[in-house]
Batch of 2 targets.
Target 1
Amino acid sequence: MAVITAPTARAAELLPTTELAQALDLYLAQLNLTTDTDTREKYPSLYAAGQQITFDIDPGARKAGKFFRIVAVRQGRVESVHAFIERATGKVVKAAGWAAPAKSTAKATKGELLSRYTLADIEPLLAAVSVPSAQYGRYLYQS
């Protein structure tokens, strides 16, 4: 079971409940830990040069809007979108690009987003981001 602590101010500002904000912080912490370990083992020269990637809430995220981005950051610069979080439900959705989450038309009804993971059920998400190479986002794809 994951240890729950007080959420960061940024997470609490963007999500409707304390539980979702706490889960977001746990998700980011585990993703960053896994990425750090993977980078240190597979790319020691990048790690030594401070070139490792970290994941965080998009600095430009606003309180308005249905989603906010989880971005990859290297040396203080945002490089790409890793995932989108649906603000109301906590669904973690892969990105179609910088501006929008991916939508699946094969299995979803019109307008519905398919998501394998949600912040409301954090344990499967933490297990998914605990595997090496989680930073590449394979866990976000539907099987």
Target 2
Amino acid sequence: MRRKRFLIPPFLAFVLMASAALVRADNIPIDPLMDVSDPFCEVECPNPVGPGETFQFTVGADGGGIFTFTNQSGGTWNSLLFVFPASGLRLEDINCISSGTPSDPAPFASPCTKSFQNENTMITLFYNACPDGCIFNGIPNNHTLTINLNDVLPGGVRAPGGSWPVGLTMTGTGFSSVPEPGTLTLLAVGLVALLAKRRFPGWRDSRS
């Protein structure tokens, strides 16, 4: 007796695969997440950042990553500014928070302030420790800033990767004071210009 063979039509196979993908998507967040925290550093503090210096990090092949930098500016970072290419991202899709633990409280208010710059080609994320009289601690001198770009799964478990564009490079700057809105815009424009010069070494201001 010959066995009957059942073949799944190509269209039906595609539908089944798509349905499985939708199930996975329902359980995994797809919005990019940045989580900033402040564990104290005692010895061998990673990636020291001195007075007036910026710091950079690049999204890994898994769309996320965890990056650490040590504030060695001599003062507390009461605000942070991150600048990066828009890369097709929408502001409403970006989640930027600051978390903590009982021993290491959240250093900044959540969520951060998001905006477009340079004709919507760049995005800035601004973290503020003083929205209501500096009720947050910021990043004190010799404390380590931890930036987590990995997704959070249901139940609060961290995923091994994130939802950011792979290879996206972000530049950050810490400030001891909280800039006024107008000053913040100027700072963002300055960082955008700095990024342009680093990315295109031959770039010059058209007015020169």
